[in-house]
Amino acid sequence: MPIPWNVELHHGRVGVRALRQSDALRWDHLRRSSADWLGPWDASLPPEGGQPTTSYRHMISVLRKRAKRGEVMPFVTTWDGVMVGQVSVSSITWGAARAASIGYWVAVDYAGRRITPTAVALVCDLLFERMLLHRVDIAIRPENHPSLAVVRRLGFTEVGLAPRYLHIAGEWADHRLFQLLSEDVGGRVIDRIGESHQ
Q1: Does the structural domain 8-192 have CATH classification 3.40.50.1860?
Q2: pTM here?
């Protein structure tokens, strides 16, 4: 089934759109300026996992190729049309599961404006309404309080703790696992955000 990743979604001042090759310089700037803010939560490759990607441009190219094959949905989060973060859909599964996982980040200068929960809600609605998925999963480090606030606001249910679940910031790290099921939404996920932003 083709996935609708090359879309533009909006709610108030927050937008979600497909990642573009031209985003490389902005991505690099945001990641560098927010290194201390994002670093503790960044995925890393274990020693046996090979070498990390050498450039943002190459990484974007790889993500876009994988999106065209229906493996991932790499989105950019925007504020007033300017890229400020990312929401990524991965582990897209059809068949009996009909599920996907979401990961996200926002630059430190834009934190606290409800940008990430709004972007995640927009993407969840896309996954439930257009792709007809049944479950969306999010894995979060137990000490990542800003990220935990996102799933709480959107009504995700905690389903357990996964010890040493992902390699993060140089080590295998425990994660709390959350899910949102299509039948538990009762409308649109974006409706849980409330009115337009300041």
Answers
A1: no
A2: 0.92
